[in-house]
Amino acid sequence: MKNKSIEYAKHITIGFALLYTLMIFIKTFDFTYLTIMSAILVSILFALLHNTYTLKNTNKCKKKSDITYDIKTEALSAYIKELDKTKKELNRKNNELIRFFDEMQYGYLQTVMSLANSIEAMDAYTRGHCQRVMEISCELARVLELDDVQIENLRYAAILHDIGKIGISPNILNKNGKLNDAEFEEIKKHPQIGYNILKDIKFLKEAVCGILQHHERYDGKGYPNGLKGNEICVFGRIMCVADAFDAMTSDRPYRKGMRVEDAMRELERCKGSQFDPSIVNMFLNLMDSEKKPSILS
Ligand SMILES: [Fe+2]
């Protein structure tokens, strides 16, 4: 717009200059003056033509860049549309994966429950015991502020902690009365047997340490490896307390289960020797608190 105005102004100026020259010539008939003025006007005209040509070329270039800009905008819109489509597709696939993952987890859980049932079929005493150890262990894990994934792994470890008993003679497992030394040595193999059965199962790889170590003692006098203190994994230390509490308070064919208060006193007495003292303290606090879970009532 600005360039066009300048262009009109130039044309008007030249028009006035030509008119003025003509009038002077008519008035004076001076050919020298006419020649000089004509030369000046031709130069101005030439310069103007040159400017107009340059301006047109510039406009042409601008139009080209405008076209390029339009093409780029169009390409960008198409790209954004494509991205939207891809995003929707990704969301759909993601939801599908979440569904498959849930189904897989449910499948895992069913497998674990089948294995746990197979222990109960072998050993009448363990009926309900694995479930209770699992629930107590998970309560302790929450107090210890383990994350959700760790609690899920602990859940698997606790429900399967005695799976190795399927490798022990039912005569020993269901014996009415105290075990002799040889029988006790046989029973002591169950954490290692359980570990050997499950160690290659991928989704249990974080859980198997608890299965192997749930009979280790804090003072290093446990089995199968005589681990001590924090050498025992946290799952093993938690499950040891939960397992002992449930074992003490459950009825056996040859004896009645202890009262809860007596079992708590026994845990207190054995903290630092058999049990991790900090976990026993947490357990006792949990038992005394108003938030005591129903499994411990
Ligand atoms: Fe056990």
Write the layout of secondary structure elements.
Layout lengths: L1 H27 L2 H92 L6 H15 L4 H12 L10 H4 L7 H7 L2 H9 L9 H6 L20 H16 L10 H11 L6 H12 L9
Helix pairs in contact: 1-2, 3-4, 3-9, 9-10, 10-11
The structure holds fe (ii) ion.
* Named CATH topology of the largest domain: Hypothetical protein af1432
Bound ions, cofactors and other small molecules, one mention each: fe (ii) ion
Q: What Rg is obtained from the alpha carbons, in whole angstroms?
A: 46 Å
CATH class of the largest domain: Mainly Alpha
Low-confidence stretches: none
User: What's the total count of β strands?
Assistant: 0
Share of helical residues: over 70%
Count of domains: 2
Q: Specify the biggest β-sheet.
A: none
* H-E string: HHHHHHHHHHH
Written overview of the protein:
This protein is mainly alpha-helical and 297 residues long. The chain folds into two domains: 2-85, no CATH class; 123-296, Hypothetical protein af1432. Helices cover 71% and strands 0% of the residues. The chain has helices at 2-28, 31-122, 129-143, 148-159, 170-173, 181-187, 190-198, 208-213, 234-249, 260-270, 277-288. Helix 10 (260-270) packs antiparallel against helix 11 (277-288). The mean pLDDT is 85. Residues 161-162, 190, 214-215 line the site of fe (ii) ion.
